[in-house]
Amino acid sequence: MAAFTATTTAAAATRLFSLSTPKPSLFRRNNSLLHSTLTPSFSLNLKSSSSLKPLKYSTKPTINAAISVGSKLPDATLSFLDASDEVQTVTISALTTSKKAILFAVPGAFTPTCSQKHVPGFVAKASELKSKGVDIIACISVNDAFVMKAWKENLNVNDEVMMLSDGNGDFTRAIGAELDLRDKPIGLGVRSKRYAMLVEDGVVKVLNMEDGGAFTFSGAEDMLKVL
Question: Where is the active site (predicted)?
Answer without folding.
Answer: 114
